[in-house]
Specification:
There is one protein chain. By secondary structure, the chain is α/β, with parallel strands linked by helices. The protein folds into two domains: 2-194, L-asparaginase, N-terminal domain (Rossmann fold), CATH 3.40.50.1170; 220-322, Rossmann fold. Helix content is 28%, strand content 24%. The chain has nine helices and 16 strands. The strands form four sheets. Strands 1-5-2-6-7-8-9-12-13 form a nine-stranded mixed β-sheet. Strands 14-15-16 form a three-stranded parallel β-sheet, sandwiched between helices. Strands 3-4 form a two-stranded antiparallel ribbon. The protein is globular, with a radius of gyration of 20 Å. It starts with a strand and ends with a helix. The relative contact order is 0.11. Bound molecules: succinic acid. Succinic acid is lined by residues 16-18, 33, 62-64, 95-97, 120, 122. Succinic acid (SIN) binds next to loops.
Length: 323
């Protein structure tokens, strides 16, 4: 842990990602994520002098490999720091690939009344066009903003709510979208310009419930299945078969999120398999595989919809509801 200066604290938690990645040369497009420590990423940046800075390395991973242990460690550190009266806000450096899942998880569980700002980069720290330093400065602007609260993502000058943010591009620096909900705001030359309100959760978890989730050995197993042309029932039948789970040493499936077609429609082959799964006690939620829009409920719907959450976020919501 490293600290600097006096006053209210901004705590920076490092988890790895491209923002901490390195390549052999400034123009080399092949790089390895999660190489530089968070303190090194902050060194030399013109950060706000009015805050004491604390940095902590919670993990050092490529976020495609995000797992329960890292999420739990991050949850515990966030819970710890957010409870300190002298802490103004948290900044979390994270890979872009599962950023939206971590952001949603932290908002859903912590519903923080202080800002928790996740930031990232699409180019490694050693790149000639490294975007991490500016993203960090923008994240600090949001972290220092009076009245800010909730979990947000700051990338390419845009502020996204944890509920709506999705990685939408494989390569461009401005890789995230909030879809038709729209960005929360922008950071323009260090100033926060807000278009919408900061994120607020409908459900609030008690600190001991968060602690329990942060320490559970496993979370309820929820899988995502895709409805597509010529799909068969076999995938769902295999997923929910207790003997198959046991053979692979996996816990039984407790929930399924279907990334459905269009406005939540399912291939008839999946409908039948899902009915069998439900008869076994498996919970089913429908999200859409469409990049834009959400599943709008219709009278007589057989399966609950994901309330606007993408399949990966709906999976987390269902897991949390099953704990
Ligand atoms: C990662 O998600 O850790 C690697 C990719 C990225 O940060 O852009």
């Amino acid at each position: 842990m490293q600290t600097r200066s006096q006053g209210k604290k901004i705590v920076v938690l490092g988890t790895g990602g491209t923002i901490a990645g390195t390549a052999a040369s400034p123009t080399d497009r092949a790089y390895v994520a999660a190489q530089k420590g968070v303190a090194e990423l902050l060194a030399g940046l013109p950060l706000p002098q009015s805050f004491e800075l604390v940095s902590e390395q919670v993990a050092q991973i490529d976020s495609k490999d995000m797992d329960l242990g890292v999420w739990q460690a991050l949850l515990r550190r966030c819970q710890h720091w957010l409870a300190q009266p002298e802490v103004q806000s948290l900044v979390i450096t994270h890979g872009t690939d599962t950023l939206e899942e971590t952001a949603y998880l932290l908002q859903a569980l912590l519903a923080p009344t202080k800002p928790v700002v996740l930031t990232c980069a699409m180019r490694p720290a050693t790149a000639i066009d490294a975007d991490g330093p500016q993203n960090l400065l923008d994240a600090f602007a949001v972290a220092a903003e009076p009245g800010a609260h909730g979990v947000v993502v700051v990338c390419a000058g845009r502020i996204h709510s944890a509920f709506d943010v999705q990685k939408a591009h494989t390569w461009q620096l401005d890789a995230f979208t909030s879809g038709e909900a729209g960005d929360l705001g922008q950071v323009v030359q260090g100033r926060v310009v807000l278009w919408r309100n900061w994120p607020v959760s409908a459900v609030e978890y008690a600190p001991d419930a968060i602690e329990k989730i942060a320490n559970l050995a496993t979370w309820p197993r929820v899988e995502i299945v895709l409805s597509h042309a010529a799909v068969t029932a076999a995938t769902i039948d295999a997923l929910v078969a207790p003997d198959v789970a046991a053979r692979f040493g996996a816990p039984p499936v407790r929930g399924l999120v279907v990334a459905a077609t269009g406005n939540g429609t399912l291939h008839q082959a999946l409908e039948v398999a899902l009915q069998r799964a439900v008869a076994q006690g498996v919970r089913v939620v429908r999200a859409t595989r469409c990049a834009q829009g959400r599943v709008w409920p219709r009278p007589g719907d057989a399966w609950p919809d994901s309330q606007g959450l993408s399949p990966v976020k709906a999976r987390l919501a269902l897991m949390l509801s099953l704990v």
